[in-house]
């Protein structure tokens, strides 16, 4: 009888762990962005995170779970000041990992495209590319001197992760 109770408790624990792991890993991943320090004169307007297979652009090989986190921000800084703040940003950890490699993405009004999926939404550049901070370095935008102040912008991170039971595939 004791062995049966222990076995039942173990099964229940595994089911609870497996049924909450995608939410837990996604929330931990999103918090890497949400906890990242903001530039001065900047405030958070909205924070979102989503996970699900409808984010096909993030699907890795092997059926990993895609995850996206983003924040809409308002600032009195110029575009150049914003990019200068993030240009040396450290890479964030992958979901459910200590390994770092996720780069912050930055999207400005008029330069971003909203993708609404059944599991949530994400942003890309107008050309559907991810606008990682390093993509601005390649365009030499850090040295521009004219830019409007008092604007909104979006920070985003995206990745995918492996999880135990893939019964929802």
TrEMBL record:
Protein name, entry field: Uncharacterized protein
Species of provenance: Priestia aryabhattai (Bacillus aryabhattai)
Taxonomic classification: Bacteria, Bacillati, Bacillota, Bacilli, Bacillales
């Amino acid at each position: 009888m004791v062995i049966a109770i222990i076995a039942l408790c173990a099964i229940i624990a595994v089911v609870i762990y497996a049924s909450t792991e995608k939410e837990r890993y996604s929330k931990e991943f999103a918090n890497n962005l949400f906890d990242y320090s903001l530039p001065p004169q900047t405030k958070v307007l909205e924070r979102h995170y989503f996970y699900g297979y409808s984010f096909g652009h993030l699907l890795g090989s092997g059926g990993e779970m895609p995850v996206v986190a983003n924040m809409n921000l308002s600032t009195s800084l110029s575009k150049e000041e914003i990019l200068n703040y993030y240009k040396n940003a450290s890479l964030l950890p992958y979901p459910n990992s200590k390994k770092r490699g996720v780069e912050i993405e930055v999207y400005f009004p008029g330069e971003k495209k909203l993708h609404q999926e059944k599991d949530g939404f994400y942003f890309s550049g107008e050309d559907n590319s991810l606008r990682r901070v390093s993509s601005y370095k390649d365009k030499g935008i850090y040295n521009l001197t004219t830019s409007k102040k008092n604007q909104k912008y979006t920070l985003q991170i995206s990745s995918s992760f492996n999880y135990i039971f893939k019964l929802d595939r």
